Amino acid sequence: ASVGKNTSLEQPYILEPDLVNIGNDCVLEFETQLNTSEIKKGILEFRQVIIGDRVKIGVRSVLLGGTKVGEGCEILAKSALDLNTSFGENMMIQGAPAKVAGNTNGEVWQVKTGCSLAC
Question: Which Pfam families match (predicted)?
């Protein structure tokens, strides 16, 4: 498990932190859930959650096991990324189940020291 430099975690729920990798310059807003496990046919299964650099995850969004989010993505509030879902770079993602809603156009936003929001 790892959390990159300049990443802001605003009270997320991370159920199995050893299976979560978060890149540099990310923001996980309030009550984001990273859930790496599920019970399938009575068997507990685990999958990684991988978040690239410069990713912003909106309030109360949920990422399930096997999720991979590419660099520069923004996941809008209350979105749900289903099991084994992958998104490429610079995508605007929203909905439940989550779908590509647009492109971030590679816009770079930064987390400033002492700031818990994308500033």
Answer: Hexapep
